[in-house]
Amino acid sequence: MLKNFKLILQSLREYKIYAILTPLLMMVEAACDCALPYIMSIFVTIIQKADLPGGSIDLNQIGVYTGIFLAIAVISLLCGIFGAKTAAKASVGLAQNLRADVFKQIESFSFANIDRFSTSSLVTRLTTDINNTFMTFNLGIRIIVRAPLMFIFATVLSFVLGGVMAWIFIGVIPLVCLGFLFMLRKATKIFTRVFKRYDKLNESIQENVAGIRVVKNFVREDYETQKMGKASDAICEEFKKAEVIISFASPIMNLSIHIVNMLVCGLGAYLIYQNGGKGDLGPGQLSALLTYGVQILMALLMVTIILGMLSMSLESVRRIAEVLREETTIHNPTDPIMQLKDGSVKFNKVTFKYSKSAKRNALDEINLDIKSGDFIGIIGSTGSGKSTLVSLISRLYDITTGELIVGGHPVHQYDLRTLRDNVAVVLQKNVLFSGTIADNLRWGDLNATEEEIVNAAKIAQADEFVQGFPKKYETYIEQGGTNVSGGQRQRLCIARALLKKPKILILDDSTSAVDTKTDALIRNALKDDLPNTTKIVIAQRTSSVEDATKIIVMDNGHIDQIGTHEELLKTNKIYQEVYHTQNRVKDDNGGATHATHAS
Predict the structure, then answer these.
(1) Rg of the Cα trace of the chain?
(2) Mind listing the pLDDT tens digit for each residue in 275-288?
(3) How many Cα atoms are found within 13 Å in the side-chain-facing hemisphere of 323?
(4) Does pTM surpass 0.85?
(5) Less CB within 10 Å around the terminal CB: N or C of the chain?
(6) 40: which residues sit within 8 A by CB, 6+ positions away?
(7) Largest Cα–Cα distance of the chain, in whole Å?
């Protein structure tokens, strides 16, 4: 656990000075707070002696101690104010840097790393877990020094003023500590469970917000509300249990203070009476002892509070450290190649599986040679390995065995940015971000001119519908692109990829939501405008790949066959089945015949 805290504290950086100043200020404040009762006891003793026969008040002495008392009180006040200010700066700075560090770490993850964490869990770590860590750190750097020092100073001064009376405090302390430790042990177990429930709650929220249209279409609002309510109620019940346990701290502390006060007053009065008021223990010392008793127990209470918060944040710290400690599975080479010569791709006995523990390969013995400028089609059933195959080209995953050569060099020898700038991928799940259409398209090229944006949109067959919007390319896109249709979203994503001017363009079922006519127009435009770009198209429709240079038929992680549209129609059963299913035209004898596609 200490390793986790050290890792988290590395994010302090420029705020480290505030984290160091805060405990120093708290040390001075604790010393001042413990000195004040001692000065007050001297006041009481001076006044007591003045009441004795022949006694008198030395005004100079009173003035000196008044000045000392006020000076110490002011110093304590200033240390408290500045300590709270530096603690706030240190803790807020830690939270700020920690969010940036965790987010940057997530951005560096490969797909293999991302697969280990759910999206909802990462959101919880970036929000709830960091908030818990921030609040604990804020209190911790003030209390973790102040409370122990106050305990030590108050205990020492109790022995100085009260002698044997101070053993009353020592006797009560173990009982208080045992009660607090028992509560913390119970509460920690609950907090460990509750953050897993937070992940489930965030997952439910994320799914519902992202899929609100589906929820409404299937009239599942009541069901999802109940589901959300159960997740929320589960967290509520866990926190109730924890709060009930922690709430015993205050009654235990109050009872301890009352017991200590009763014992100090009772035993102190007895000793004063026995000594006839002439011993070392007088009303001034007794008053200071009562104050020190409260300070000792309050110091224990403060330690308990911080331990309680610590018990809640231990799981948060572990979860944050888990992300920060995660090693990305894909690294830049030490001396990377900074230029991609062309769009040629060669798979040489490539196998791949998503994790070392996986029982079977997702891809097995893939041999494939794609020349620069080729138009390659890939067809196969769901789970056949189509998307997995193309994800290896831009190193979203690394191959397990074999050799993958892109542009004449092994793919792992390239600088990652260089490689991915030259390989544009339009994934199955098309994502647009909140902002204007132009902003979204400029993800492909931040410096793209208006003319380049329009040209890319025309190739992707997006310009026509964009021109129909009142603000055209300045039309605002809602988060996730919810205010445009699926087909429009796909075309905008294709245009965004084209602005990268890639040497390899991969369309992973990226025209599934457009009609066959628009699909054909996109293919023809890609062929005419990007003749030297290697185009790899994954499709469910044979019409989307029938004019490809060659078509790859995938089956269960293997290449079943490679050929042209005509060759595969004659020899490949998988391709024939897909083709005839999509083209239900019967001849006079009831047999399936070829149909004419819109092209």
Answers:
(1) 36
(2) 655 555 666 677 77
(3) 30
(4) no
(5) N
(6) 69, 284, 287, 288, 291
(7) 136
Instruction: Find out whether 348 and 367 touch, Cβ atoms under 8 Å.
Output: yes
For residue range 155-200, what is the model confidence (pLDDT) as tens digits? 888 787 766 677 777 777 777 777 777 777 777 677 667 766 777 7
CA separation for the pair 494, 505 (Å, rounded):
9
Which residues face 561 on adjacent strands?
553
Q: How does DSSP classify residue 211?
A: T
The distance in angstroms from the start CA to the end CA of the chain is 63
Question: What residue spans of 460-572 are helical by DSSP H?
Answer: 463-467, 486-498, 516-529, 565-571
Nearest residue to 532 (alpha-carbon basis) of 497, 501, 565, 495: 501
3-state secondary structure 238-285: HHHHHHHHHHCHHHHHHHHHHHHHHHHHHHHHHHHHHCCCCCCCCHHH
Tokens of 89: 């700066």
Retrieve residue 557's tokens.
């992680």
* Mean pLDDT in residue range 537-563: 89
Q: Which of 65, 57, 7, 1 is nearest to 36 (CA)?
A: 65
- Give the pair of three-digit tokens for residue 497: 């990829």
84: nearest Cα among 149, 2, 26, 164: 26
- Report the length, in residues, of the chain: 599
CA 286 to CA 493: how far, in whole Å?
79
Contacts of 529 (CB under 8 A, 6+ apart): 459
Residues whose CB is less than 8 angstroms from the CB of residue 224 and which lie 6 or more positions away in sequence, other chains included: 204, 208, 215
* Measured distance CA(45)–CA(166) in Å, rounded: 19
